[in-house]
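HUMAN: Please help interpret these tokens:
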Amino acid sequence: MASKEVIIALDEGTTNAKAVALDASGKVLVSRSRALSINTPREGWVEQPAELLVSASLAVIAEVIETVGADNVAALAISNQRETAVGWYRNNGRPLGAAITWQCSRTAGFCQSLRQQGKEAQIKAVTGLPIAPLFSASKMRWLLESVPNGVGLAESGEICLGTVDSWLLWNLTGGDAFCCDYSNAARTQLFNLHTANWDDEMLALFGIPRQALPEIRPSSGLFGYTHKCAGIPDGIPVMAMIGDSHAALFAHGLGSAGCVKATYGTGSSVMAPVNSAQSGVDALATTVAWHDGERLVYGLEGNIPHTGDAVAWMVESTGLDLLPPSELAQQLSQLPASVDSTLGVYFVPALTGLGAPWWDENARGMIRGLSRGVKRAHLVRAALESITYQIADVVMTMRQHDDFALTALMVDGGPTRNDWLMQYQADLLGCPVMRSDVTELSAMGAALLARKAQRGLPTAELRQFLPEHVSFQPDMARHGRLQKRWHEWQSAVELTRLQTAPL
């Protein structure tokens, strides 16, 4: 193995932290992962121990370094779950409390007050993001309010507020580096898409002192060096940081026009590259896809909180969680194929509200259309179909954008290993679905950005490292038939929203 050619990419997700070592050709040498716990202390609250995000991440990095040899490691890269907010004390790195995850809706009341004040158009114009508790700003406000004199301490520089990338970087560098990348900054609702910096009006609106926020840097470039981490040698450069969904889009095709990306995980991100920060599509987010060290690349995105999570809920509710993992995966492919339809059942998994394109945090889940003949197979199929309908809802909304093009849906994530699901998605959309079977795709995207910075490469030269895809071609006759089911699904969504509307 050539010295100093291995990139170790940390992919810190919602349910696990994974470290992946990639060699000079982009091949995965080894990966290690650790599961992460998720806590729901109250209805609509979703949080994780901030210390656990760090300890699990550092542990898997150390394990991979031990396997490949520290002398071979050229750089580290980070991809991370987005919008999750962490606060900590600058002098000792102790968290203010738990990390408030992207799924959490505890700030729904504050978000509703912003709507009532007529702030939505202003926020959307500046940040590209609709008002929703998904984004980090309202969570950061909540964190400051959760500790005595939180705002005062933040104003004096004694409290740090960040997304997960900045929290991990702080710990990897022993507190030497307090930075985030453009893609994560753009998800906070404090970032001005047009000036590419923290926005004074948004900081004032959410009550966040600028002194508490990290420095924003390109996704590809030097962020700092490892320092004082057990099992991790000092001096390894951190050469890339990027949100996980953005990293996956980068690894699929480097942002090629027409290649729309859908990541299937606990939730889903559907993202399309677009040419500018301007967007007239109110129901979707305009965001920074990445800054590759040369230029900002923008993205049009819809975020869905419950896709794989919807299937997990149905698995637990139908007793399938008692099966070994390999048998469960087999059942999730066989059960939906064993029935011709759901017998009219539609599952709207608004377990903590609806994301794009509905943005209704007050909605709650519903199973509609139950009849005596409905069995477990129909319910499981309904849960899987709900993933495809939610993604189709976002794609349909994306078509309103002048820059949008769809030649193929590029997909990744655990649920995409279900061939039945992928074919249903292709047939529903009427376009090819191109699956990457690289389970480390987000890590690979971050590693590519680190490699670009390490070698000083133009982005186009990274194409040689991109993974192959498996193609699912649409059955256009079935595509026509599925449009009726899709419309029935949308009716179920509207009924869900009506039932939770205030009286």
